[in-house]
Structures are given as C-alpha cells and as structure tokens.
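User: Hey, my collaborator sent me this sequence without any context and asked if I could get a structure. I don't really work with proteins. Can you help?
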Amino acid sequence: MIQHTVLHRAAALAAEYLAGLPTRSVAPTPAALARLHSLDRPFPDGPADPTAVLEELHAVGSPATMATAGGRFFGFVVGGSLPAALAASWLAAAWDQDAGLAVLAPGAAAFEEVALRWLLDALGLPPDCAGGFVTGATMANFTALAAARHAVLRRAGWDVEADGLFGAPPIGVVVGEEVHISVLKALGLLGLGRTRVTRVPTDPLGRIRADRLPPLDDRTIVCLQAGNVNTGACDPVRDICPVAHARGAWVHVDGAFGLWAAAAPARAHLVAGIAAADSWALDAHKWLNVPYDSGVALCRDGAALRAAMATQAAYLLQGTGREPDEYTPELSRRARGVEIWAALAALGRSGLADLVERCCRHAARFAAGLSAAGHEILNEVTLNQVLVRFGDDATTRRVIAALQADGTCWCGGTVWQGRTAMRISVSSWATTEQDVEHSLAAMIRIARA
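Assistant: No problem. I've predicted the 3D structure and written it out in structure-token form, which is a compact way to encode the shape of the chain:
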C-alpha cells in the first residue's frame, strides 16, 4: 500500500509540474538554484518515508529544472516528451525489465522489434536493416561505426574484435569540416582517432562538397551528416554514395535529428538518397520526442553489427529469435524501445510527418520575424534550425544572456564561420504558434533594449 501511495503521489506531482510549464520561467530562477544547496548534507543514518523523499525531490528539484518539456525551449535540439511516450516510460519503469536478453524481457523485446520495423518504414530505409536501441546519437554513432570498422577490416582479413587494432591494416576515415563532435568522440573510442581523419571542405551551409572528396577505397569509412547542428543542412548523400560504393567504401550517416526529415514528405528531398548509405545514427529523444535517453543505431549489414557487438557466455541463455544485446554495447539496459514504440503508435505516419513539418514551419516563422525586425539570419532555413545575429559579436552575446535570464524562452549561442550567433532549434511537439509569437516578441524586445 505504501508503494501505491508514493506512486500515486508521483503521478500527481508530475502532472502538477507539467501543468505549470506554460507559465513558469523556462530557465530556473536564482532562488531555485540556491535551494539546491539544501541537498548538501551527510548521508542519512537510517531509512526515510518514501513519500517524504519524493516531496523533497519535488520541492527542491522541480523548480531547479530547465523547462525542456515545455514549448518555449529552443536550445541544443532538445525535444519534449509526447504524452504517450512519457506514460510508456513510467509503465516500463514499473516493469523494471532488463531489456538486454529476450528471455529476461520477452515483452520488451517484442515491442522493440516492432519499433525497429516501424522506424525503418517511417524513414524509408531498407526493411532488412538491423538496429540497436542505445542512449543517444553518440552511442549510435559508436555502435554503427563499430560495425563499419568490423566490415572494413574483415575484408582485409583482420578480426578486430578478436585481435584488436595493434597491427591491423590502416583504416581511412573521411569527414566534413562540419562533422559533429559525437562522430569524432565515437572514432576516438573505437581507436580510429579523432584527428586521424581526412576533412573535406564544406559549402556555406556546412554541407560536405562532393567534388572535393579524397581518393577512396575499400578500407575507407565516409562519415556524412543529415542535419548540421547549426544550419540544419544535410550532406549530399545522393551524390556521394554511388562514388563511395563504387570504390568499396562504407558510408555512415550521422542523422541525429536531420534523418527525421525523411518521415515528412515535404522535407524528404533534403535527405534524398539517404537509404543508400550503409549505416545510420539517430536520436529518438530529439525529434521523435521520447524521454531521455534514447537513440538508435541502424545498419544495412546486420551480420557486421552483430559481429561487432555480440558476446557469448554459458550463462547467457539464448532464444531462437533476435537477441537485443547482440546489437548494442550494453548487456544490461532499460527497455527504451518501448517508448519509441509508444510514440510511433500514437503519432502514426501522418502524425510523425506533421510533427516534423510543424517544427520546420515554426523555425521559418522565427527567421521571418527576426529578419523583418532588422536582424541578420545567417542560414537558409530549410529544416528546424535558425541562426540569428544581433549586430556584432558582443551585442549578440548580450542578447542571448538577457533572453536566457528573462525566462520567456531559452536559446543558446554558437559561432558560425567565425561569427557569434544565437541558435534557435525547434524540436518539441509542445511548441505552439502562440509559443513562437510570445518568444519572438521577447527576442525583438530584448534586442532593442
């Protein structure tokens, strides 16, 4: 009964928190942050009432959150949580399943298989691709590039999982000048090196130039990008894949948020040819709007992904179907694919397309409104990213800081081609036209101050 009481209270407090998002400051107030110091006390000597623990968590923690679940957070390409996905997360947490083995979590394994199939369908990727549910794009890039590493070295007669990289044939890695840091981090973790890459020049929007590719061969991994983190631009995958494949190279696409454009008919042309790649990484906690943390690694060569990830032990009971742990780095993990299933089931094909298109429309409105107010838009707004500059670098930084302190909305800063800019990322299902107009008015007001 105590357990039921605390769970009901948790649901009530969560509902109270969500209901307050439209009217609260997006950033936590200084007073809310100051109350976090109350947590600095010795480890308790004995147990406490679970409900009392929850009440303290809410009283101290809820006001100190960044309101990323609301409709006026436009930083870091962060999505909110769809109601169905959030509720599924609560239920899956109550199940407390270890989703690494099908024998431990047969229900979760079944939901994840369906979620994977639906994802491939929604994104227009080959239906026989393999995939694994991971924490986010960093681990998705790591997982997919591990499969690429395996395949490239296997062709050279080297078993990297058994023998490591010492003495292995060299692998060439090609990236664009605007490669995302998560790809470089994954390359470092895989022993391929963050700086031992060939960087290809990009165009003014950050897209890799197909005409500047270096010589490629069957020991090369080409890393492309769907959705530049600043401009939203996508590399010309359709132009590069045939060239790379003709020379035996592996093509990987970091599609953390941009890959979702494939699910919206009006935006799919931005990622034309994406299905021809060999592997893909994407975030579900961005544009699919499931709770953190959630990413997916996808691979055309399922055998390569399984060879890179699978391990065997006598105590690991194997079923006759797909074993989740054979496609991800983790053996023990939560059933994050359940939330993806719930989001896709709730949205359907048309709902997913509308979510993507709506965010793009909001981004275009921000760009148009700021431009009309006399502020410089630095990128062609084709997806959900807007770069705006308020005069010089110092003024732009001042506006960003003042906007964050104001609390109406939250945007981050960046440097694009040597110029400081404010970055507006529209990724949340919760963002309404009213949120956009309210935030736009605050930006213009603060810039004029």
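In plain terms: Residues 87-343 form a domain with the Aspartate Aminotransferase; domain 2 fold (CATH 3.40.640.10). You can pass these tokens on to your collaborator as they are.
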